[in-house]
Amino acid sequence: MDISASTVWWLLAGVAVAAELTTGTFYLLMVALGLAAGALAAHAGLAASIQLVAASVIGGGATVLWHWKRSRMPQDRPVPENRDVNLDIGERVQVPAWEPDGTARVAYRGSTWSARLQPGAAAAPGLHRVAAVEGNWLVLAPASN
Known about the structure:
Blueprint: H1 5-23, H2 27-43, H3 48-72, E1 92-95, E2 103-108, E3 111-117, E4 126-134, E5 137-142
Parallel strand pairs: 3-5
Antiparallel strand pairs: 1-4, 2-3, 4-5
């Protein structure tokens, strides 16, 4: 059986897409675009060297552009402080009193939680907001109304 160059390019593109689906690495889709460009160059009857150049330029260029676009996007907050990851962030709790070591026990979501004060915040009883969740500790900051 004789396999054409375009078939090889399409198979490689399919392998790259399958690998992306299993790993979640979006960059592999950019490589697959380059491989598809090589397949289209093969369909056009261009020489193997031109096919390689097309695949390299399109795949490499798409990868570089995607990396550049991602680097310009705002960075996510760290996981302990990210409300997209932990819906407790930003919720309000009432602190009856702070211990001398900067910890407190607060009622939250039907249970008693251990809490500590966010660094730099004043230890005063009253309404606080959850600034972060570190393990089973709530990190609290004074709530600004």
